[in-house]
Amino acid sequence: MGLFKRNPFGHILFVKKWLIRILxxxxxxxxxxxxxxxIEGSExxxxxxxxxxxxxxxxxxxxxxxxxxxxxxxASLSGRVDSIKNVGYLWNPKLNLYYVAAKExxxxxxxxxxxxxxxxxxIERTWRSEGKDVKRQVRMSDISxxxxxxxxGWVITFPQGTTTPFKPIRKGTAHIIKRYKPVVxxxxxxxxxxxxxxxxxxxxxxxxxxxxxxxxPLEIDYENETxxxxxxxxxxxxxxxxxxLKVISEKELKAQAELDKLREW
Length: 265
Fold this sequence. Notes:
This protein is an alpha/beta fold and 265 residues long. 38% of the residues lie in helices and 16% in strands. It is built from nine helices and nine strands. The protein has helices at residues 13-27, 64-77, 103-106, 110-119, 140-152, 171-180, 192-195, 227-237, 245-264; strands spanning 36-40, 53-57, 97-102, 120-123, 128-129, 132-133, 154-157, 183-190, 209-214. The chain has a seven-stranded mixed β-sheet, sandwiched between helices. Strand 5 and strand 6 form a beta hairpin. Helix 1 (13-27) packs across helix 4 and helix 6 crosses helix 8. The mean pLDDT is 87.
């Protein structure tokens, strides 16, 4: 890798690599120390193509969700199964890994700007701006940017576009799936909302069980399924259909009780 080689967004890969190493080392104990991240299904990563993979996930904080995913993805690709033990996996991180984020969020301060350099595909939200509801047309340049990231590697997106649980899935994700035909991998996370503040920067509570389940890629008929059908499939895949509300609550209570027993032992 040349010292000044850049990715399609103009970011210098050498700089990006060192930012991931430094930020990864600084945040590791947030998921294996102050709190425990329980991982399930990370062997999926080993069987994915190098490019055109779209990860869809529910969303609980602005930044902690993505940071945890960077840890899990890189740990798995370096040979660890369902574990982020030993932060050495960050020495040679995956550099063609991106995540979709609101442009206004990624410009709000120095740290978000640094995190944006690590891999943000920043887009204009069409439904909300500066804390107010708005109605905007989707910018084709934003869609193209996501397509550019898929052409180069893997992209993480949060199709609800908000950290509020059980909100509707935005149709834009379904349009992207139909247009670029990526491998679509669902991820379900939990515990981050209880562990961190809304931004995911400050630790709110310790000894919380965090979980991340990586599921098998979705089977999608890109040509014949409608956007509405794909939206419904996403809703169930990331467990954000209202029917999951009671199930998730019971699962949270059971998992936390098991963690408390282990800590007492």
